[in-house]
Design a protein that fits this description.
- The protein is α/β, with parallel strands linked by helices.
- It has 19 helices and 13 strands.
- The strands form three sheets. A six-stranded mixed sheet has the order 1-6-5-2-3-4, sandwiched between helices.
- Helix 15 (292-306) packs antiparallel against helix 16 (308-322).
- Mean pLDDT is 89; it is low at 81-85.
């Protein structure tokens, strides 16, 4: 059964709201729709993935997606969801960020095949826009009362909002009009907090150009426990850029999803078909301890963002850390190098001497003192490279090292560290 774009969004939990007439307009193929992305940073984070997946499904349904990088509006900033004015960027900073975002979006959208995606930057028209012309041709279609009623503006009235940010709605509406002129765009996608800006654009197209246009919004995502989606336990964002969030930590953000969220996120953030997701739901219900749904979710999203090799290395690295039964002797040097960047670690003297177990336990913080280390050995709580050490075994031959000269040292269940010789490469 072939589903329309809106039907696909609906069963995946991605549909929040749409303008009247959108189901009829999107029932066939060939509509061109856009979504805007803020280039005030050099990377998207996983909180941006929902609108990205909206464009992905638009393309898969036989429509043309346009990813609009807000090089012009990004210098001003959307007041939606913000409590204070943002710092303004230079044109050069925005251009660099826009180029980086293009590379990330290419992992999700096909820019060359059937229904090829296009990339636009609103700096191309906003930076040369004449103020008097803009006020005469666009501003006249909006009343101050209408603009003051928008949630994004009302929420800022008490703390203060500049005219710069107040004008954002008009500029976004103008983007819609300009994209209609250039690319025939008649649809805008965005988060549910963008509804006011989107409908402002549809109204401008109707009043200024006599064009029927539509808007579709996607829900704002929160985790089942009420915490903000896209943040780590420490409150930092999970970025798509591997230099800001490593593939291992990226994988961890998905594999650690709450059981209540796993099926929902499989629908939202992967392209797995309904039958496969429902099978994973059933497996999750029958054996939640196996975390099959989380595993499928983590592999799918990490593979798309970082590639198959990095995803596989992240999975193996995760398994060896969190499952003490996994034999580390089969780990590749690439997996161990990934763990070296994530775990407590210490470098051994490059003299070929045996691994000094007590020194390593103290240096990596697995124990507080050498005496504590001896007690852990006596209790049988210390393993090196998967082998439990005897009570008096305070050295391990250097020849027992894993690939790349690494030693995986574990105390108890999930307290893990690495040691390696100074001449080893990572």
């Amino acid at each position: 059964m072939t589903r329309t774009f809106l039907e696909e969004l609906a069963w995946r939990g991605l549909l929040f709201q749409h303008t009247e007439g959108a189901p009829q307009a999107l029932a066939g193929t060939g509509i061109t729709g856009y979504c805007g992305f803020d280039p005030t940073g050099s990377s998207l984070h996983i909180g941006h993935l929902l609108p990205v997946m909206g464009l992905v499904h638009l393309q898969r349904a036989g429509h043309y997606p346009v990813a609009l990088v807000g090089g012009g509006t990004g210098m001003i900033g959307d007041p939606s969801g913000r409590s204070a004015e943002r710092n303004l960027l230079t044109l050069e900073q925005v251009a660099e960020n826009a180029a980086a975002l293009r590379k990330q979006l290419e992992r999700f959208l096909d820019f060359s095949g059937a229904y090829a995606a296009r990339m636009r930057n609103n700096a191309d028209w906003l930076m040369s826009l004449r103020l008097v012309d803009f006020l005469r041709d666009t501003g006249k279609h909006f009343s101050i009362n209408q603009m003051m009623a928008r949630d994004s503006v009302k929420s800022r009235l008490e703390t203060g909002i500049s005219y710069t940010e107040f004008s954002y709605m008009l500029l976004q509406a103008y983007d819609f009009l300009e994209l209609n002129r250039r690319d025939g765009v008649t649809l805008q996608l965005g988060g549910s907090d963008q509804w006011g800006n989107i409908t402002a654009g549809t109204e401008l197209l109707r009043k200024h150009a006599g064009v029927e246009a539509h808007g579709v919004t996607l829900p704002l995502v929160t985790n089942a426990d009420g915490s903000k989606f896209g943040k780590t336990a420490a409150g930092t964002s999970v970025w798509l850029d591997a230099t800001r969030t490593s593939p291992y930590r990226f994988y961890q953000s998905w594999i650690n999803a709450d059981d209540r969220d796993a099926g929902r996120y499989l629908r939202m953030f992967t392209l797995l078909e309904r039958e496969a997701i429902e099978a994973l739901d059933a497996a999750q219900g029958a054996h939640p301890e196996r975390r099959e749904a989380q595993g499928a979710l983590a592999m799918d999203v990490t593979t798309r963002v970082h590639g198959a090799a990095a995803a596989e290395a992240a999975r193996e690295a995760s398994r060896v850390v969190f499952d003490r039964k996994v034999d580390p002797r089969g780990l590749s040097e690439a997996v161990l190098a990934m763990l070296w960047d994530e775990l407590p670690r210490t470098t051994l003297p490059d003299d070929g001497a045996a691994l000094p177990v007590l020194d390593v336990l103290v240096a990596t913080g697995l124990v507080k003192s050498r005496g504590d280390g001896r007690r852990q050995l006596q209790q049988g709580a210390v393993t090196v490279n998967g082998r439990k050490l005897a009570a008096d075994e305070v050295e391990v031959p250097r020849g027992d090292a894993l690939a790349g000269g690494y030693f995986l040292v574990r105390k108890g269940g999930r307290e893990v560290a690495l040691a390696r010789g100074g001449g080893a490469s990572a």
